[in-house]
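Worked example 3 (structure in, sequence out).
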């Protein structure tokens, strides 16, 4: 057995020795089907999960590929129980198939069919109390008819009991609409073309690409491939306008063909861009804008930042299974644990490009990450110690001692474009005043936000203090420094998104610097370890700095 960097254990955990010369190669292959759980300095712990295996299978990797990865890089023989478990778990995907019955000349037929060649599996699922009401007939011993409305719901329930169905029932073509890419002076990158081709073949699913790697262009290319009316769902109005600008620049679409459906404007056009907020808005207890989903015969629905999909949209998406669905994201991590719903209702992961691989190709900027540990003064330390548990994180995250450290870092990076990112509005107010820098929060009007972002892009302002509204879908390519002073507890997705603000290629050729300020020996430090897990999985290492050393 080779002296590899992995140790595979019988509890489905895999240990990775970070200092091993083959660690990065092994990490690259392992991350296809295993999730990073812990990432301290020397040994990283991955866990092989059912959903991870099924996502890998849907993306075209079979059990033999996964076991070959473990055998190739493992220091000791892979436990037989793990090998058997992986083969059997992967083998569950696709044992049940959802398909559509042929339509007869008289128009009959076309029902949704749940089929399996494994009689025992079919019997097991048909007896399940939550699945049985969704089945309304049995045309043959190897098949059941699914109630027409239940395509999404049955996929959710089947996943929960460990039998993920492969959905081959096809999609409505939607209303045809001509859309072409306008590749004048640019071309899709090879990984973007591959992602689009795999999605088009599968019909629905998720494309995972780093921030700054051109997910919007993947969406535009998918629209050009399908040539149909398209509904694009995004996180906020600023993101909606960025999508509009990019589509006008990169495709044959004209302003008259693109509509915005948000709190400010409600247009329905062949390509309509709507916000998640407007879709989930309620009036008198009812979703007020539900009609948007059926306003046109949409042939494609694009979910931007799909890891942020609000829970109510899952319920609405369950009724949209006949339409092609494309999810775009930098990470499938959800802090609410609903990755299974993304798999069932949007579709499985179709394409995933490791961040460091895209960086090595020169398509995103290199970045270095720092964790700066700040000592609390004696008074603040005592106040923290005496506080209730639910108050401690806020006290640590908003520690006044961080303000001076932010000033030092801004001075260190004079001449670069710097984002200061925080969670708490009072802290953002203090930072904005201390640095004499403009701020953007959820209370900032959309037009003012766009003016400030544009001023930052062109260099009229070099320091911008922002709240979590800048976590997502904001295009600031010349930002080369981010200083994170506080965040949403231990959110891995937020950490990835904030680093992502820096990864777009830069004309300045600056290497991006991502600083996280941590109050030493507090829950702030504990949450930081969890926040960093996803980026550690992508190959980013955090250098620990002492705040006192910055002044040296």
């Amino acid at each position: 057995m080779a002296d590899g960097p992995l140790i595979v254990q019988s509890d489905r955990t895999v240990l990775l020795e970070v200092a091993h010369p083959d660690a990065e190669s092994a990490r690259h292959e392992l991350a296809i089907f295993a999730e990073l759980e812990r990432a301290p300095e020397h040994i990283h712990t991955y866990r092989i999960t059912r959903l991870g295996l099924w996502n890998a299978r849907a993306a075209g990797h079979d059990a033999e590929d996964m076991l070959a990865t473990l055998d190739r890089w493992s220091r000791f023989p892979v436990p037989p129980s793990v090998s058997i478990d992986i083969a059997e778990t992967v083998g569950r995907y696709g044992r049940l198939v959802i398909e559509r019955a042929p339509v007869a000349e008289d128009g009959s037929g076309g029902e949704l069919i749940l089929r399996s060649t494994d009689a025992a599996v079919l019997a097991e699922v048909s007896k399940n109390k939550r699945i049985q009401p969704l089945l309304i007939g049995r045309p043959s011993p190897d098949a059941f008819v699914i109630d027409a409305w239940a395509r999404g719901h049955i996929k959710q329930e089947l996943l929960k009991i460990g039998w993920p169905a492969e959905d081959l029932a096809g999609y409505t073509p939607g209303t045809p609409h001509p859309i072409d890419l306008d590749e004048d002076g640019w071309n899709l990158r090879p990984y973007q073309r591959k992602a689009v081709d795999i999605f088009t073949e599968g019909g629905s699913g998720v494309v995972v690409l780093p921030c700054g790697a051109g997910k919007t262009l993947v969406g535009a290319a998918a629209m050009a491939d399908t040539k149909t009316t398209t509904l694009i769902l995004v996180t906020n109005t600023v993101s909606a306008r960025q999508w509009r600008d990019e589509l006008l620049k990169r495709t044959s679409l004209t302003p008259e063909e693109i509509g915005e459906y948000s709190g400010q404007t409600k247009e329905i056009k062949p390509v309509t861009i709507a916000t998640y907020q407007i879709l989930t808005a309620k009036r008198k207890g009812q979703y007020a804008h539900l009609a948007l989903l059926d306003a046109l015969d949409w042939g494609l629905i694009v979910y931007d930042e799909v890891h942020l999909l609000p829970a109510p949209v899952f319920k609405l998406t369950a009724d949209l299974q006949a339409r092609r669905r494309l999810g775009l994201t930098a990470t499938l991590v959800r802090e609410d644990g609903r990755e299974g719903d993304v798999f069932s209702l949007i579709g499985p992961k179709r394409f995933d490009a490791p961040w460091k691989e895209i960086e090595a190709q020169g398509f995103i900027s290199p970045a270095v990450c720092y964790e700066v540990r700040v000592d609390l003064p004696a008074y603040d330390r005592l106040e923290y110690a005496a506080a209730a548990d639910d108050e401690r994180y806020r006290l640590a995250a908003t520690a006044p001692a961080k303000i001076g450290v932010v000033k030092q870092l801004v001075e260190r990076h004079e001449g670069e474009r710097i984002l200061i990112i925080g969670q708490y509005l009072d802290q953002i107010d203090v930072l904005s005043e201390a640095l004499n820098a403009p701020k953007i929060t959820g209370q900032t009007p959309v037009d003012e936000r766009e003016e400030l972002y544009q001023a930052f892009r062109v260099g009229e302002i070099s320091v911008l203090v922002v709240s979590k509204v800048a976590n997502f879908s904001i295009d600031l390519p010349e930002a080369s420094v981010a200083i994170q002073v506080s965040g949403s507890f231990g959110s891995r997705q937020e950490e990835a998104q904030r680093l992502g603000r820096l990864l777009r290629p830069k004309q300045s050729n600056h290497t991006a610097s991502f600083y996280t300020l941590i109050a030493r020996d507090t829950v702030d430090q504990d949450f930081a370890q969890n926040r960093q897990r996803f980026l550690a999985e992508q190959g980013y290492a955090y250098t620990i700095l002492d705040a006192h050393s910055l002044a040296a």
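Notes: Residues 436 and 463 are 9 Å apart (CA to CA). The longest strand covers residues 367-374.
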